[in-house]
Design brief:
Length: 198
């Protein structure tokens, strides 16, 4: 290790083992100044301590990063239910370029009925949210088929509500002016569309 005299600044090279583990007095051979010297810490200890300090200091930021990543995952994965429950978030999602569309796999058409009277076909039913969180309602495609399966008309409509609470339904109703639909079949299918902020 190198020792610098506190008084005359002369530098001495001495063996590490020459200094007692608890430190000791040394005398400068040039100016006779006496001072106390602590033993030299091995470099590896220093770097270990430094690494420990760095890790300690990094622990909080690392946890913060993990939390931010977790929050981002939730924000991404649950963007449908989140924006369904809080439509004011839609514009934020749009701002960061994430599109939102209804989760068709949780939507189900129920209680579909069609009445035909004097060339007017009235179609009504409900769209159910089978998910455990609020979901976006989707638009619906309505196919009117003849008995032989020929397409008489295709219509699109949106149900009454834009979002559906968990396990709840929203109603839809459509009235179509159409000929020869006495024995028509009606097929209603939820369809995907980008949901934009409103
Ligand atoms: Zn000296």
């Amino acid at each position: 290790m190198l020792l610098t005299c506190e008084q005359c600044q002369t530098i001495f090279r001495i063996d590490d083992s020459a200094i007692a583990a608890t430190g000791q007095q040394v005398r400068c051979s040039v100016c006779q100044h006496v001072w106390h010297v602590e033993p030299h810490q091995p470099v590896s200890d220093d770097s270990n301590r430094l690494l420990g300090d760095v890790l300690k200091r990094l622990r909080l930021p690392a946890l913060t990063l993990i939390m931010i990543a977790a929050i981002c995952t939730v924000i991404y994965a649950f963007r449908g239910p989140l924006t369904a429950a809080h439509p004011q978030l839609l514009s934020a999602y749009q701002f960061i370029g994430l599109s939102i569309s209804p989760n068709l796999s949780v939507l189900q058409v129920e209680n579909l009925s069609a009445d035909y009277e004097r060339n007017i076909l009235r179609i009504r039913g409900q769209l159910k949210n089978n998910y455990h969180l609020t979901s976006h309602a989707s638009a619906l495609e309505i196919k009117i088929l003849s008995q032989t399966g020929e397409i008489l008309a295709i219509e699109r409509m949106v149900p009454e509500d834009k979002v559906i609470e968990a396990g709840q339904t929203t109603a839809f109703f459509l009235q179509v002016d159409i000929d020869n639909a006495t024995d028509a079949q009606v097929v209603v299918t939820p369809i995907s569309q980008n949901i934009i902020s409103r």
